[in-house]
């Protein structure tokens, strides 16, 4: 039995899980928030067996990631509510890393060389990669004797062909600065694709799929014979679908318009498109549950936001059907994709002519597990498959450390 610590380190937070392999049991899950701010907070939920849940909340200033990680270790090894006796029980640490650039086509064991490549990739993800590197640095200090594995959001999409990843801008920008589309959410797309292959009872490398990740961040991937051949997020996680607070596709000339007519600076435009746009920009809310309640109560903007988002989804599904030709299944995942039958139905509207037949009853059932929601005669099957990035990372560690 192995216990892995999975870490997702953000600029002011550390999300983590302890997972036991091969049983794939979650022993503890938690979040350290507001690191470096006045009032820090840690919430840990331990699952010591027989459906028991023990919650610990600690509120105190947390100066940096080191201190945050020390708190995590303290709760995990707590005599009463802990799930490990000491840190030696952790046999590997997995890190979610947002941007691996073109250097990583798959997960990798972290070495000093890997860290220096990640540092070189900071310009591609200036907000995320430094925070991921903080998590790696601290974990290497605290767990010096165990393998540390980096799992990249971008790696799954490194199989995209040039025609899909190049922007039609001067080629030298790609050559000199690696300006291109990378795609993100790769761990999630890959995970649900694997689960879907299992449900289809086919090897993944024989499956053509469209995976639709709709959460606060949203993206869609065209998967041909198990490999990503196109995806909606681009050089940064801003392109493509309408997201919670991110615009997705806009005319690139919008920047110039906003600067010339409103006097916005580039950084302000960046904030506007990343944090004040998407569903929030259209109707003032970015939580889909609030948007549905508001739309049901007659809020026209909320209804409009839903319409704009699902229309964009439909356009991308159609585009990816054209790219793939044969499609075995469309898979919905993440917060909205897993839980919102209205979004699923609207996103598939009008696709009947392409053999996509949703079963309204199955679509409306509420169930936490993977399931098929298409009619028997649908030539393209439709699935809802819960994503689980932490488990995907744990499986990557198991694969890498057994090689
Ligand atoms: P994620 O980023 O995957 O955690 O997804 C967050 C999004 O999922 C938010 O917009 C939530 O409002 C949405 N969500 C979560 N539960 C539901 C639900 N039952 N119905 C509709 N949307 C939901």
Automatic annotation (TrEMBL):
Pathway assignment: Metabolic intermediate biosynthesis; acetyl-CoA biosynthesis; acetyl-CoA from acetate: step 1/2
Necessary cofactors: Mg(2+); Mn(2+)
Gene Ontology terms, MF aspect: acetate kinase activity; ATP binding; magnesium ion binding
This protein's GO CC annotations: cytoplasm
Cofactor details (free text): Mg(2+). Can also accept Mn(2+).
UniProt xrefs under Pfam families: Acetate_kinase (PF00871)
Principal place of residence: cytoplasm
Sequence positions that bind substrate: 96
A GO biological process held by the record: acetyl-CoA biosynthetic process
Transition state stabilizer (site feature) positions: 185, 246
Record-linked InterPro entries: Ac/propionate_kinase, Aliphatic_acid_kin_short-chain, Aliphatic_acid_kinase_CS, ATPase_NBD
EC number(s) recorded for this UniProt protein: 2.7.2.1
Catalytic reactions on record: acetate + ATP = acetyl phosphate + ADP
Residues forming the catalytic site: 153
Record keywords: ATP-binding, Cytoplasm, Kinase, Magnesium, Metal-binding, Nucleotide-binding, Transferase
PANTHER family per the UniProt record, alphabetical: ACETATE KINASE, ACETATE KINASE-RELATED
Function: Catalyzes the formation of acetyl phosphate from acetate and ATP. Can also catalyze the reverse reaction.
HAMAP family noted in UniProt: Acetate_kinase
Membership in a protein family: Belongs to the acetokinase family.
Assembly, per entry: Homodimer.
Protein name (database record): Acetate kinase
